[in-house]
């Protein structure tokens, strides 16, 4: 079965929230509650423009800057940690649901013998992968904890994807990136990755293409043939 990728691709790097699992919806809910608790209205467009795909504190900084606010680093961390506590509560209440089409694609990749990495800004990735029964598919994980301890720049910079490729023992030009966030496809493009797949979960196909996606799909199994 074809994975819908160029022949030169020898490794696959997936974002987690919004690509493999529906947890992006839970993150959006947590961000909304956090910011609106501060008296700052927060829309889906705000999520896509300022927060989606970025490390937690970068998301806080970016959104508040859009409102002309420049809190201290201690305050940024407090807000980000509050959001993280809240999303964990929401995950406990609502659970983790992998996208069935994404699971089919992971199964096809595993059957084809192509190494799989997950590259995410989330610090909760291991928990989400376990809860979604996805951990057995993952050969390498670069998450929010790795980004901090390795002093990597977050998306839209390509550092985390480059580290994912390194852990799968390949080069960016021979790896594919799968992302639903504008910051993520921008990172894949900027890092010189051999193929960038945009997953449209928010009616932003044109923006995904503009930011660097080579192809845009609604579900990953559309690539299978």
TrEMBL record:
* GO MF annotations, alphabetized: hydrolase activity
Q: Which InterPro entries match?
A: B-phosphoglucomutase_hydrolase, Beta-PGM-like, HAD-like_sf, HAD-SF_hydro_IA, HAD_sf, PGP-like_dom2
A Pfam family this protein belongs to?
Hydrolase
Obligatory cofactor(s):
Mg(2+)
Q: What is its EC number?
A: 5.4.2.6
* Record key words, sorted: Carbohydrate metabolism, Hydrolase, Isomerase, Magnesium, Metal-binding, Phosphoprotein
> Which reaction(s) does the protein catalyse, per the Swiss-Prot or TrEMBL entry?
beta-D-glucose 1-phosphate = beta-D-glucose 6-phosphate
* NCBIfam families found in the cross-reference section: HAD-SF-IA-v3, PGMB-YQAB-SF
The family line of this record is: Belongs to the HAD-like hydrolase superfamily. CbbY/CbbZ/Gph/YieH family.
Give the protein name, as stated in the record. Answer: Beta-phosphoglucomutase
